[in-house]
Amino acid sequence: MTNEQTTAANGFSYTLTRTLDAPAARVWQAWITPDEYAQWAHAAPGSVELDVRPGGAWKATMLTPDGAEFPLTGTYQEVTENRHLVLGMDVPGRPDPATMAMELTEQGPRNTVIVLSQTCDTAEERDMAEQGSGMLLDGLERFLSDGAKG
User: Fold this and answer.
1) Cα torsion angle, 39, 16, 54, 60, sign
2) Which of 13, 35, 43, 76 could form a disulfide with 60 if both were Cys (CB 3.0 to 4.6 A apart)?
3) What is the pTM of this model?
């Protein structure tokens, strides 16, 4: 896994890269199927709704390790099946959604490189978002390595 943090003119960015032991189509299905997403993304069962198309809405209630719940909502801005998602995330008090991009690149028949990136307004927001994205990737990697077939 590689992590990169940068400070850009328009904000604070991070990029997380990981190689997963699964084909891109399998990684994609885990990311866009509500029941599967809930299993690896630390979401409350039954809280995940995903309308995966440009302009489609998504929502999930995330569970923190200490048991706290926090709802997330947003829309899909870009969707390229098995390759690319750009998610807009609603942030209270912010007029425009925060965006996170996910890229999948297959390396042979069984490995996929996943890259998550996001630009935030402050270093603190970036650090929190990067920590959350790292937890997402950890959960996804465990889910796929446990042989979940969906």
Assistant:
1) positive
2) 43
3) 0.87
